[in-house]
Amino acid sequence: MSQKTTKQLVDALAQVKRLPHMPEALLKLNKLLSDPAGVHVDRVAEVIMQDVRLTTGLLKAVNSSKYQMGKEIKTLPEAIARLGVNDLRVLALAINYNEAFQPASSLDREVFLQHGLLAAHIGSGLAKQAGLKMNPYYGFMIGLMHEIGQYMLLQSEFIDYQAVLEASHHKLSSLVTLENKMLGFSHANIGARLLKTWGFPKDVYMGVLGHHSPHLLETAFQRPAYVGFLAEVGALYVQGQNGLVQSDSEKLGATTLRVLQRFNLTQDNFVTIIEKAQEQAKS
To answer: Which residue in 24, 37, 88, 127 is a FRET match for 275, CA 20 to 30 A apart?
Structure first.
């Protein structure tokens, strides 16, 4: 099988219309809300209004039972004030994520989307734990985007990803090894490069890059990668698959338990985080 570098493949895939699209408004919003000095509500609303889908989705969300406080919200500044910065960022990303992926061969789109959203909330929950402490929004993004590379590879006209999936028997445990052997890189490499191209924070794309092998990253980025690792494990613990490949076990394995111990988390702690994430993903 012909091999390409991750850069060559991402550049080539940029021309494929079926690729998930990150709206310019969402990229601007993420940058704007990352400013430690803060930003005026009207400026945030101005950026959001550049994307009709995002505007509509946020207004719909803020009037849902989760946020509604008796009065219907009709304007973006009101919606932004009601949501707050953290929920605004999470909702904006989730709205785009749920609409960005198109059906693809071998992919159960609904399960894939559910897997990403569940992993996102698990990642956010993990990021709040003392041992893994990091920006919860970064944990959310790592969990949400950790498998975007798989979707990209499915869309490629330049490689035969189906052959890799068949060789792995659609089992996650052997997929990454076979990707590296047959392609020269893994879906984690592809996903991380795409997120870097989109301007995501370095902790996020490094967390995605290392979510299958956090120990191989330089020390500064191992914690985000372990958040990604555990977010994926947690989502698979619930679902057993991600819409493309299956987990090999319904139990939390010895490796997972060692990782939890490393960050002063018990199995019960982890299951509680997972259960809370399930409720959040439904709302």
So the answer is: 88
